[in-house]
């Protein structure tokens, strides 16, 4: 019951119960085969759980959560290195809130902060730039996580830092791109019948990056928005594709995703980053799946400018985050789930990140 | 993963970490029947009377925020803890820890506020203490208030809710998340502007207007951790389920927009003038009517009911008719990218 | 990933724009958009402090129209339920 209601335009209309129920009926009517649909975007995981969408779908449609949470797929080694930076007296760590409680091999950024490390949570890399401006004698390291939605922000930040001559500002990049992960999952034989495509990644990249998925693997991708109506409509579109054996890339989220994406943002990405092999929790090393800072901007690359020794990461016994990320197992299948590994005391990243499968499951679905 | 060996900010946020800390340290060593209840106030026998006793500390930053200051919180927090336990708040103590260099003008503003609020609430501040610490050893000013109130025998179960029955209704006196988001907006390191005002208020008079006419079975004030935490706590280990309807929960537009922007769930955002009540199903409409006549209950609403399903759980029927569990928050809510 | 929210541009200050979501406002960077292509009254998606795309309001209105069909379907089913005491689905 919203007081002084002023419709949040282009948000509220997509939360209309009647429309959602109408689409649910249509899905029921059209769905004859049992299908597994995977979403690969943490924002989708959150939305699906927050609005209780699985409850509205027929038994024939199962939604699986894939490796769409950038926190969850970030290696333990990245956190260990970030912690090593945090422990340096002349370093200020700036980070998105998502990373603060992710477990490294021995500690978390949260705990380092409690011990006195200068770790600051920011909403935007632009805030981190301000920190760098105000603290010239310190090295300000920004932890760059996220996929193609967030990487352009890091690119924009680096370009700005370069122009402003902010020599004490550094990016530690763990940025990744989605399509290699989506293709590897199918290659590894994970049973999926279609993908709900990441809506905001696609806002930047456009639809072209998914072209191989129907072509080579025979699976459809419907690029979806984040409101309940969007997700329900995307499920309907995928169900129809599967029933008609007509896999293709479709854009449900037309109000935001253009087929060509955001060209300017793509150019900024290309200016600052180049593809490189990267390690994904649960998937291992994927070719050209990471965004590495180009030589041209190496003066702002934390890994180049701030050398630090870090021991090889230690993975906890019993943690099956990797398999959960691939949608092979559900949180309930993990021996540690809800017993040893809980949101307040997480073992693996799937539980720490508020949109990791395990956290979402624990919070909304137990 | 090793257990925490240092205190984290999350330990103070009123959610799961706080609970764990209380259980594993404070209740463990101070162990007694009263403490184990973990209600807002302790109910004690003093001679042939029953009193309610509570304490709270206030460390908010910024100390002046839209809708009030730390002084308002210091009075309202303790008065409300007593009132929601079913007691009539009578006397407060207050202790100040002040940082060297703190402007006396600001101190005066805060104390003046406290005097006004106490008078309106009908409580008297009868004892206090002041300490000053070196610059940097505390953040401007910290306040602790303790309070005692008289409680009638028939009301002693209000804090623990042992008289709740299937079919009872759940009521809130107004919109959620106002305080938490007002403070967040005031911090301004987020560069967000929102016209949100804290809901900080002493609710004892409003609560009294209800309880003198109607039997209230349960009350808890929703502070840090939000109503989500209260509803989750209410359901734990109970032989009933707590069912809440999202579209019946009042929320201000400004709060909603800001929560969307930052990715916060309003259910878990702090309040300082909200009470969750459980009353019999035939009394619910009357309670709402009475609340609406009071300044602090203008937007009162029946938000849910006690059901004979999903025992021991609190769950939300979402705006689109979906279902999800309301659990306790594990740390603090932080601005996220995802 | 991708907490982004549609917000209305209220004012443009060079490279940034003051945008509103409901009654809250936030000043976002326009670095990722062609500034000539945005104006006051446009809706943009804000993500981590940047406007990352302009909303195509025509598409939005078109999609909302198609949703009317679903609404109608639901209404028809409700009516059927009232009249016959049950629904097909």
Report on this model:
The complex is a heterotrimer of chains A (366), B (338) and C (89). Chain A is an alpha/beta fold. Chain A has 2 domains: 13-318, Rossmann fold (3-Layer(aba) Sandwich); 321-364, no CATH class. Chain A is 37% helix and 16% strand. The model of chain A has no long low-confidence stretch (mean pLDDT 90). Chain B has 338 residues and is an alpha+beta fold. Chain B has 2 domains: 39-155, 60s Ribosomal Protein L30, Chain: A (2-Layer Sandwich); 169-325, PurM-like C-terminal domain (Phosphoribosyl-aminoimidazole Synthetase, Chain A, domain 2, Alpha-Beta Complex). Chain B contains 9 helices and 16 strands. Chain B has a 7-stranded mixed beta sheet. A 5-stranded mixed beta sheet of chain B has the order 1-2-7-5-6. In chain B, β3 and β4 (68-69) form a beta hairpin. Chain B is globular. The model of chain B has no long low-confidence stretch (mean pLDDT 91). Chain C has one helix spanning 57-84; strands spanning 5-13, 16-21, 24-29, 43-47, 50-54. The mean pLDDT of chain C is 82. Chain C has a 5-stranded antiparallel beta sheet, with no helix packed on it. In chain C, β4 and β5 form a beta hairpin. Chain C is elongated, with a radius of gyration of 19 Å. With 89 residues, chain C is of the alpha+beta class. Chain C has 1 helix and 5 strands. Chain C has one domain (5-84): SH3 type barrels, CATH 2.30.30. Chains in contact: A-B, A-C, B-C. At the A-B interface, β1, α1, α2, α5 and α16 of A face α1, β12, α8 and β16 of B.
What are the defining features of this structure?
heterotrimer, B: 338 residues, alpha+beta, 60s Ribosomal Protein L30, Chain: A, Phosphoribosyl-aminoimidazole Synthetase, Chain A, domain 2, 2 domains, five-stranded mixed β-sheet, 16 strands, C: 89 residues, SH3 type barrels, five-stranded antiparallel β-sheet, 35% strand
For this structure, the quaternary state is heterotrimer
N-to-C span of chain C:
34 Å
Order of helices and strands of chain C: EEEEEH
Which pair of chains forms the biggest interface, and how many residues does each contribute?
Answer: A-B, 61 and 50 residues
The low-confidence parts of chain A are none
Instruction: Count the DSSP helices of chain C.
Output: 1
Shape of chain C: elongated
The CATH architecture of chain C: Roll
Which range best describes the helical content of chain A: under 10%, 10-25%, 25-40%, 40-55%, 55-70% or over 70%? 25-40%
């Amino acid at each position: 019951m919203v007081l002084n209601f002023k419709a949040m335009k282009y948000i509220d209309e997509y939360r209309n119960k009647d429309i959602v129920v109408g689409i649910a009926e249509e899905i029921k009517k059209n769905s004859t085969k049992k299908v597994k649909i995977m979403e690969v975007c943490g924002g989708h995981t959150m939305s699906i759980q927050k609005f209780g969408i699985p409850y509205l779908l027929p038994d024939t449609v199962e939604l699986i959560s894939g490796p769409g949470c950038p926190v969850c797929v970030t290696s333990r080694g990245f956190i260990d290195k970030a912690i090593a930076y945090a422990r340096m007296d002349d370093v200020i760590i700036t980070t998105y809130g998502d990373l603060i409680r992710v477990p490294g091999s021995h500690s978390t950024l949260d705990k380092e902060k409690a011990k006195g490390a200068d770790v600051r949570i920011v909403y935007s890399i632009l805030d981190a730039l301000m920190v760098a401006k105000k603290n010239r004698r310190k090295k300000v390291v920004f932890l760059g996580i996220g996929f193609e939605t967030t990487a352009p922000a890091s690119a924009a930040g680096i370009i700005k830092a370069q122009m402003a001559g902010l020599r004490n500002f550094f990016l530690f990049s763990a940025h990744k791109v989605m399509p290699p992960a989506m293709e590897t999952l199918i290659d590894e034989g994970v049973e999926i019948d279609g993908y709900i495509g990441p809506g905001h990644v696609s806002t930047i990249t456009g639809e072209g990056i998914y072209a191989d998925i129907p072509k080579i693997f025979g699976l459809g991708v419907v690029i979806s928005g984040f409101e309940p109506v969007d997700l329900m409509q995307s499920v309907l579109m995928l169900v129809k594709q599967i029933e008609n054996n007509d896999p293709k890339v479709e854009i449900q989220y037309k109000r935001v995703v253009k087929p060509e994406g955001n060209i300017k943002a793509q150019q900024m990405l290309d200016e600052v980053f180049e593809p490189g092999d990267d390690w994904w929790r649960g998937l291992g090393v994927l070719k050209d799946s990471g965004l590495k800072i180009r030589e041209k901007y190496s003066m702002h690359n934390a890994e180049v400018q701030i050398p630090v020794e870090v021991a090889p990461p230690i993975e906890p016994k019993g943690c099956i985050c990797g398999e959960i990320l691939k949608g092979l197992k559900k949180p309930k299948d993990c021996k540690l789930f809800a017993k040893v590994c809980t949101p307040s005391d997480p073992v693996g990243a799937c539980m720490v990140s508020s949109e990791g499968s395990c956290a979402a499951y624990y919070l909304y679905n137990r | 993963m090793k257990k925490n060996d240092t205190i984290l900010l999350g330990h103070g946020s009123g959610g799961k970490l706080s609970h764990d800390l209380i259980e594993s340290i404070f209740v463990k060593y101070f162990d007694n029947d009263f403490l184990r209840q973990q209600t807002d106030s302790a109910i004690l026998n003093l001679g042939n009377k029953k009193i309610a006793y509570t304490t709270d500390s206030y460390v908010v930053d910024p100390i002046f925020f839209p809708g009030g200051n730390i002084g308002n919180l210091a009075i309202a927090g303790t008065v409300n803890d007593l009132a929601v336990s079913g007691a009539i708040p009578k006397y407060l103590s207050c202790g100040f820890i002040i940082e060297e260099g703190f402007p006396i003008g600001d101190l005066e503003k805060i104390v003046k506020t406290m005097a006004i609020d106490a008078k309106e609430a009908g409580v008297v501040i009868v004892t206090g203490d002041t300490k000053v610490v070196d610059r940097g050893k505390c953040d401007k000013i910290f306040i602790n208030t303790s309070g005692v109130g008289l409680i009638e025998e028939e009301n002693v179960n209000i804090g623990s809710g042992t008289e709740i029955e299937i079919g009872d209704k759940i009521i809130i006196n107004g919109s959620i998340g106002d305080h938490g988001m007002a403070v967040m907006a005031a911090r301004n390191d987020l560069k967000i502007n929102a016209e949100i005002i804290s809901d900080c208020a002493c609710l004892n008079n409003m609560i009294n207007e209800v309880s003198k006419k109607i039997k209230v079975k349960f009350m808890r004030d929703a502070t840090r951790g939000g109503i989500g935490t209260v509803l989750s706590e209410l359901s734990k280990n109970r032989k009933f389920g707590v069912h809440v309807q999202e579209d019946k929960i009042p929320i201000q537009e400004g709060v909603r927009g800001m929560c969307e922007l930052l990715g916060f769930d309003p259910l878990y955002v702090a309040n300082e003038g909200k009470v969750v009540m459980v009353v019999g199903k035939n009394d619910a409409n009357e309670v709402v009517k009475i609340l609406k006549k009071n300044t602090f209950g203008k937007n009162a609403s029946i938000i849910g009911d006690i059901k004979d399903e999903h025992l021991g759980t609190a769950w939300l029927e979402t705006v689109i008719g979906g279902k999800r569990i309301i659990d306790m928050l594990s740390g603090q809510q932080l601005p996220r990218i995802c | 990933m991708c907490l982004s929210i549609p917000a209305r541009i209220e004012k443009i200050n060079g490279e940034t724009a003051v945008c509103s979501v409901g009654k809250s406002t936030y000043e976002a960077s326009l670095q990722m958009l062609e500034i000539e292509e945005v104006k006051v009254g446009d809706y943009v998606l804000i993500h981590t402090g940047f406007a990352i795309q302009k909303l195509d309001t025509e598409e939005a209105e078109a999609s909302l129209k198609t949703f009317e069909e679903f609404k109608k379907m639901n209404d028809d089913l409700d009516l059927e339920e009232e009249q016959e005491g049950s629904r097909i689905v």
